[in-house]
Design a protein that fits this description.
334 residues; five-stranded antiparallel sheet; 11 helices; two-stranded antiparallel sheet; 46% helix
Length: 334
């Protein structure tokens, strides 16, 4: 299906997978058109306290690693001097990266923004990573790296780490574990938001032509399959866009939710006027596939449910990018 916003979306989200779990897919906050879900690690989690509510845990394996919102902190160390015989400052690396690889530079900026948003949400809601989840995910990530080493044909694992990653195996293992912890915190935060606010899953198509969308709607109502019809529509109207969207908060900022909030139950909504992502006039077609009501309980009360949900339906690239683009902390469109 058609990508709406080009650039580095897929690469940004691939960065989040780090060593252990691959995340593939392309999306945008306005119209993610595909998302490939990949299995998350899961485990038993922390034990409840005397009142039956789980405490925020911490874990230590050689070094202390708290598993709360601070995982996604990227401290500002100032324009530090880099080690070496030539006097260099950190900002010079960023300047050169922006000059030579502007897409990569923008991807890293977007990753920092994503983590900042999720960190705020995680802190406000007391979100944490269950230690057993991290133990399992870190173990899988390290086993994956060791399998790659065995396939390389090299005999010295330490030399392999230095050659491919520029770091010792000890440092690499710590960074891999931190990366998995961050990935899991992002997953729990995003899924808790859906659980807390309630969510909706739907198909979405936007086109400048109401006639094309009306014909599309009629054929869907007659039993035609969504994906082939969308491909045909995109050929007729190259400016059109759409796809099967990941679950969204019912009170999220996606423009189509304004239509969905007006409709009860499930089913298709005939073409309605809606501006495109650049403000151009057009029409939107929506088919509501599922609705889930919100749950007002705290994260400490519901994380075991989220753990099971993530094991069955892990967070995909589209869901991550929706959180980045959604403007969940801003105003709504109706």
């Amino acid at each position: 299906m058609r990508r709406v916003l080009g650039g580095g979306g897929a690469s940004i989200l691939f960065l989040l997978s780090c060593a252990g779990t691959r995340i593939e897919g392309v999306g945008s906050g306005w119209d993610p058109t595909r998302h490939d879900l990949v299995q998350e690690g899961s485990g038993l989690g922390a034990a409840p306290d005397a009142k039956g509510v789980q405490k925020i845990p911490s874990i230590a394996e050689g070094e202390s690693l708290s598993l709360g919102a601070e995982l996604l902190s990227h401290p500002d160390g100032g324009d530090r001097r880099l080690e070496g015989s030539v006097s260099l400052r950190a900002h010079q690396v960023a300047d050169l990266l922006e000059e030579l690889e502007p897409n990569r530079f923008r991807q890293l900026v977007q990753l920092l923004i994503l983590d900042a948003k999720i960190r705020v949400y995680a802190k406000e809601n007391g979100i944490f990573v269950p230690p057993s989840d991290l133990r399992l995910a870190a173990k899988r990530a390290w086993a994956h790296l060791q399998r790659k080493f065995r396939r390389s044909g090299l005999r010295d694992f330490e030399a392999y780490c230095w050659r491919n990653f520029g770091e010792s195996s000890e440092i690499l293992r710590k960074k891999s574990r931190l990366a998995e912890a961050r990935r899991l915190l992002r997953s729990y935060a995003l899924r808790f938001r859906l659980h807390r606010e309630g969510s909706v899953t739907f198909d979405f198509v936007w086109s400048r032509s109401k006639q094309l969308l009306s014909r599309f709607h009629q054929r869907i109502q007659s039993g035609a399959s969504f994906a082939p019809l969308l491909r045909n529509l995109l050929k007729e109207d190259p400016s059109a866009r759409g796809g099967h969207l990941p679950p969204m908060p019912l009170e999220g900022g996606h423009r189509a939710l304004r239509l969905i909030r007006r409709k009860k139950g499930l089913g298709a909504i005939p073409p309605q006027p809606m501006k495109g992502p650049d403000g151009e006039p057009g029409f939107a077609w929506v088919r509501i596939l599922a609705r889930k009501p919100g749950d007002s309980r705290s994260f400490a009360e519901v994380w075991p449910l989220l753990q099971k949900d993530l094991a069955r339906n892990p967070v995909g690239a589209g869901e991550l990018e929706l959180f980045l683009q959604d403007g969940y902390d801003g105003g709504r469109d109706g």
